[in-house]
Design brief:
The protein is built from 22 helices and no strands. The chain has helices spanning about 20-30, 35-45, 55-65, 70-80, 95, 150-160, 165-170, 175-180, 185-205, 210-230, 235-255, 260-275, 280-295, 300-315, 320-335, 340-355, 370-385, 390-400, 405-425, 425-440, 445-460, 465-475. The chain is globular and about 65 Å long.
Length: about 475
């Protein structure tokens, strides 16, 4: 391994300058950046991945501008360099950059904290907001190398109690605001960005129910910091975008836990923030979530309008994967309107855009959007159109392709598959798949997934004479 490079020096704007990735430069060896990029593309094809690697991307990695690759690049690098972790290749742990643009390290995390993985020491449980000087720091909770359901529950409770947002919020009391309010600085912007990363990491693993109330308090703190004003315009800009992304994360937690009106309010708040900030990426994200919510709330026409507005905002961006997801959101609304031809056309457009591959400018929040998600969202469209067998085929693919990290999505796609199979008349396979979902619900808290499983149980109830069906219903308590 390459020697640890020196610590990054602060840039004129107060942020740490990128730290060159000397370890990655070493593995490139004598090959030119263009030759190495070609080798990366060949390795991607060997494992069925698509990456748009070129000499510029290699240069950005080696300069430290790209601190952690997206999941597609990670799979390719692991294929090229078996036995080496991302940290061995000079990258930072994903947990420290999981958020919009990965703007900074998680506050309170030690510099040698490593991503969860084989052979890596467990990092401390991340805190959401930086603790004020002299404030008590909650004890760190180590992440186990392999989470059991009991350990997952410990982590969820630690997340709920370990945040120090109350300390940050206490600094912005009404009395202080009336006299001499504390103006937000760069560390406050970093804290808001870290909150977004932490919430997304835990939602990937556990779903929305347990996180929603706590995250709502973090959101109020973020907007209080924004209202107090900032020391510099650059900090205000970061706070605006960070607060908007946090509103979307909290809105999604509300959405996933069945609080649809709360989600609608948070998404509207994020959209207003995006408009004030003049940020097309945040605006596209807000409309994307609004479209998804409208579909789930049985407002398909609103879903179509929101998805089309998101696509309009995304025209100013260069992410084919984002446009693919937005086409899928439009397809979902059209399916709800029973527009078979329009839905099929939107699905074809989504697949064509997806096939163009990932890009360096793909939003970080879209790290969940891979082939499994594409299949799962298409399954939902065919299910809404009543084509159960076709829906089941796509849902089965989604379950097969979904990586183990996204536990909530594994449960979601399996629940989708169970429902489609039950309505297609494949009662025993539906029951067996439903049992798999019940096992995953020991780790995931999602009202949305439970509601899907309720529908499956109702569809299977008349067929309880089948032993697998009876076993599933008994396990579920029906």
């Amino acid at each position: 391994m390459a020697p640890t490079p020196p610590a990054a020096s602060p840039s004129p704007g107060g942020r740490a300058a990128p730290r060159p990735n000397t370890a990655f430069r070493e593995v490139r060896g004598s090959r030119s950046p263009a030759e190495f990029a070609a080798a990366v593309r060949r390795a991607a094809r060997e494992i069925g991945e698509q990456v748009s690697c070129d000499a510029r991307y290699v240069g950005r990695v080696e300069s430290g501008e790209i601190r952690c690759p997206n999941y597609a690049y990670e799979r390719v690098f692991r294929h090229m360099f078996p036995g080496r972790s991302l940290e061995d290749l000079g990258f930072q742990p994903r947990a420290s950059v999981r958020g919009r643009g990965g703007r900074g390290p998680v506050p309170g995390a030690p510099p040698d904290a490593r991503a969860h993985g084989a052979g890596a020491p467990p990092p401390p449980f991340p805190e959401l907001f930086t603790v004020a000087p002299g404030a008590p720091v909650p004890a760190a909770v180590p992440r186990p190398s392999c989470e059991t359901p009991e350990e997952s529950d410990v982590l969820r409770r630690a997340f709920m109690t370990g945040s120090t947002a109350a300390v940050a919020f206490a600094a912005l009391t009404p009395a202080d605001a009336a006299a001499s309010p504390r103006r937000a600085g760069a560390s406050d912007a970093e804290a808001v960005e870290a909150a977004v990363r932490t919430i997304r990491l835990h939602d990937d693993r556990h779903g929305g129910d347990d996180l929603y109330r706590r995250a709502g308090r973090e959101l109020r703190t973020a907007y209080a910091l924004l209202d107090a004003g900032a020391t510099r315009r650059s900090v205000t800009d970061r706070l605006q975008v960070g607060a908007g992304e946090l509103a979307l994360s909290v809105g999604w937690l509300a959405h996933d836990s069945g609080r649809l009106e709360d989600a609608r309010s948070h998404y509207a708040e994020a959209l207003a923030t995006a408009r004030v900030a003049g940020d097309p990426a945040l605006e596209a994200h807000a409309f994307c979530n609004t479209a998804f919510l409208a579909r789930d709330a049985d407002r398909p026409r609103e879903a179509v309008r929101a998805a089309q507005a998101a696509q309009q905002a995304a025209r100013r961006l260069s992410s084919h994967r984002l446009r693919s997801l937005l086409a899928l959101r439009e397809a979902g609304g059209l399916a709800g309107l029973r527009d078979h031809a329009g839905c099929a056309q939107a699905l074809l457009r989504a697949r064509a855009l997806f096939a163009r591959g990932p890009a360096d400018d793909d939003p970080e929040w879209m790290s969940f959007f891979g082939e499994a998600e594409l299949e799962g969202l298409e399954a939902q469209c065919w299910s809404a159109l009543g084509d159960w067998r076709r829906a089941a085929d796509h849902a089965r693919q989604a379950v097969r392709l979904q990586g183990s990290h996204f536990v909530r999505n594994r449960a979601l796609f399996a629940a989708q598959l169970a429902g489609d199979l039950a309505r297609a008349g494949e009662f025993e396979e539906a029951a067996e798949t439903g049992r798999d979902v019940l096992a995953l619900l020991a780790q995931v808290r999602s009202a949305r997934i439970r509601a899907m499983l309720d529908g499956t149980a109702r569809a299977l109830a008349p067929h309880r004479h089948s032993a697998p069906v009876a076993g599933f219903l008994a396990l579920r308590g029906s």
